[in-house]
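Pipeline run #58 for the internal structure catalog. This entry was flagged by the ingest filter as a single-chain record with no existing model, so it goes straight to prediction. Upstream metadata was stripped on purpose; only the residue string is passed forward. Reviewer on rotation: M.T. Logging verbosity set to normal.
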Amino acid sequence: MTALLAVRDLDVGYGRVGILDNVTLEVPEGAIVVLLGSNGAGKTTLLKAISGLLKPSRGSIRFDGAEIGGVAPRDIVRAGLLHVAEGRALFRAQSVAANLELGLYGARLSRAEERLRYERAYALFPVLRERAPSLAGALSGGQQQMLAIAQALMRKPKLLMLDEPSLGLAPIVVDQVLDAVGKLRRDGTTILLVEQMVERALEIADYGYVLQSGRMIAQGSRAALAAGDDVRRAYLGVASS
């Protein structure tokens, strides 16, 4: 498969504090790639660097054939790479429908295409259609996560990065959200997923990487990662051999 996203030899830090060291990762077009690792491993830092929120000190980030390392976030969004950050950054005093509309900010679409975007979001998460007039802040945690994903989908991304979409959700809602992620992949959206629910994430992923203390310690198919010890080592803080 062609790599839609290719990260090579990436170093990223905050000031003089290094977080990522020589990180390499590929996301093939049309795949779900999961990034695993314990809290503090550097997963969110990597997503922020890819989406332009942090500038790498070394290395390359290529998206859809173009270098985007250090490019402004708005230009990365325009190129078709969307980042749904941890914490569901919504406009809570605005309605569900208004949050979806804000997802289209700056896009030049026909009325017909806009309607198609709304229908796609509502078809993926029917509860959002029912709650369209409600304030985003009045939604449950699971509904807010669905809205955050749907807002990004309004841009019809080539690649969608999801940072901990299951965080703080009840198990039944986690299943709904991750099932929707699998459906997006079947519909042609490429996905880079950061997820703490390892077994559930590997069920829907095609390939995975394991990050520990800012370094990639393993990579492989979902079956290989599920059968090996690298994931356990990463979460227990044991150095990989």
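catalog note: Residues 109 and 115 are 10 Å apart (CA to CA).
catalog note: The radius of gyration is 18 Å.
status: ready for reviewer M.T.
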